[in-house]
Amino acid sequence: MRKLAQYRRNTHPNSGFKEKVAWQLSKGQRTGRELSALFHMTLGEFNGLMRGCLRGKTVVIEASAPVPVDGCTDFTYTLVSTRRITRSHPETMIVSRRSFAERGEDKRQQNIIAAEKRARLISRGWYPGCLE
Predict the structure, then answer these.
(1) How far is Cα 54 from Cα 14, in angstroms, rounded to an integer?
(2) 101 and 48 share a domain?
(3) Does the model's pTM come out above 0.90?
(4) Could you tell me if 24 and 38 are in contact, meaning their C-beta atoms sit under 8 angstroms apart?
(5) Is 2 a domain residue?
């Protein structure tokens, strides 16, 4: 079963709808009728929700030309890309003066030696996180 994101606290039935659609479309392109059957809603309700999902930058979903089906329009949806949002100005690490004062010279030398060791491992192509 798919794990929901930790930040999603509300219990609205359509919460995380765009993520669910992106997960289904990552398997391949699907029609609106197939997706609406998966989410247990009518094609009209699904088209209304998908209208909002077609906008945005993190998940780019494309819809093909409309095909009239039973009074509603059916689209074929394709997942174009999923992008990770990165900050343009990442937050800097905050270190207090007290932590600098409490750190001794021997600890500083240990950190320098460890950094040199990591640099050697990275230059060889090994991932240093798996060794610790």
Answers:
(1) 16
(2) no
(3) no
(4) yes
(5) no
Q: Of 51, 43, 44, 41, nearest to 14 (Cα)?
A: 41
Residues in the chain, how many?
A: 132
Q: Lowest mean pLDDT: which of 34-38, 85-89, 122-126?
A: 85-89
Do the Cβ atoms of 49 and 17 come closer than 8 Å?
A: yes
Domain count along the chain: 2
Distance CA 124, CA 106 (A): 28
Which pLDDT band, with edges at 50, 70 and 90, does 90 fall under?
A: low
Tokens encoding 24:
């289904």
Could you tell me if 64 and 75 are in contact, meaning their C-beta atoms sit under 8 angstroms apart? yes
Tell me whether residue 92 is in a domain.
Answer: no
Q: Alpha helices, DSSP H only, in the chain? A: 17-25, 32-38, 43-53, 97-102, 105-124
Band (3; pLDDT cuts 50, 70, 90) = low
119 Cβ neighbours under 8 A, 6+ residues apart: none
